[in-house]
Amino acid sequence: MVKKTFSVVLGSIGVVLAVMALLFCASVWEGRTLLQPMTPLVQNAVKTAPGIEAAREKSSAVIGRQTDPVHVDQAGLLASNTTKKAAPVSPKTVYLTFDDGPSDLTGQVLDILKKNKIGATFFVLGEQVKKYPQLISRIYEEGHAIGNHTYDHNYTELYQSFPAFWDQIKETEEEIHLITGERPQLVRAPGGTAGHFDDTYFKLLQQAGYVVTDWNVDSGDSKRRDVPAAEIVKGATTDVPGGKVVLLMHDGPGHSESVKALPQIISWYKARGYQFGVLSPQDPPVQFKVNATARGLKRSAPSAAWIQSHIAQNAALFEPGKPLRLDVGGLETTLDTGEYSIVDGHYMVPLRALTERIGGNTVWDSAGAAWVASLSADAAVSLRIHADTGRLEAVEGNQVVSRETLQVLTVNGSLWVPLRSLFEASGYAGITASVNEEERRVTVF
Ligand SMILES: [Zn+2]
What we know:
GO molecular function, one term: hydrolase activity, acting on carbon-nitrogen (but not peptide) bonds
Bound molecules: zinc ion
Helix content: 25-40%
Pfam family, one: Polysacc_deac_1
Low-confidence stretches: 1-53, 55-66, 75-88
Number of helices: 15
Organism: Paenibacillus rhizosphaerae
Protein name: NodB homology domain-containing protein
Mean pLDDT: 82
Domain NodB homology: 92-277
């Protein structure tokens, strides 16, 4: 394969960029444009001055790899467990997972996770996503993983036929994509796959690019109504052979006892030397085996025509994007796919999340009705940005030292701004950008 690398010194070769833009604009969204019309993320754009010109490339057509699942029995999980030997040096990891949210309890869960500086995975319901879009935004911005738990959790409908299950996955995916710009690849079956999924469910979801994830420790917080916190703590705290705990909990309506139990559960795992992980579609998922109950359901498999029109092209949605490596004066941070976007050839980044990652901060000034951002703790210049108009003022001391109007996006309350403008207005001398087969790179100096 021919390796294509473009190095671009920004701001100085506009003509070349314009030609390159014409050549490569169709591939900027990693091929997604063909399958997915531009979302409201882009429609909200304020037309203004150009931001950073993203280095461009041909998209590669590699489909995301799937790893072999680790099969477990639903009963006797701890005894049977994995078929693979864990590497002896790998640290013990617990993956906290929360199903059925978001709800009015999710904010408390996020506060607890933040206080403990740990990540978790939220398997959300489409109907709850519609009710609490701001919580999806927050889950996403705070670095947790979002998985798909179907739209309404209705077993009768979901397990009567695969197309019914599929429709709910896609509907929920659209709701999440509208908010985060990303499509969750992780799927968790309501009630778990045991007794529900047959080989068709597993096979078609995998073919479509999804990774089905069960659990190997059940906190027991949904075995009946109002399970008390102490009982949840007891159920949730246990070692498993191999040291990889995928813990099932719930943050849906009515699960306040789970929230109450959470700090103790975290403390227990911390005390035993566990790391806290966020599930990734790249890791081998825990999956229950197909059992006799599921096989006995005798559902008819979808037709070849249905599979062709629904499943065949879906995996292309998950072609791997490239991370954006941002080097600011020698300090490097990485923005993964979905944590940045490219609009009209310019890198757009979430203002608050980015400034926090590079050691600065962003606060809302309600009196001035603007976001105030600093790119480092000791920055001489602070930026006041008005989300509605994109108006930016760079302030040094009490003096406004420059003004411009940015192309900005508002994604459910989060302000996204052009990367280049952010650094230029803050007084950085220059920016270069490049892209190769593995990554995009922006260096600020
Ligand atoms: Zn559930």
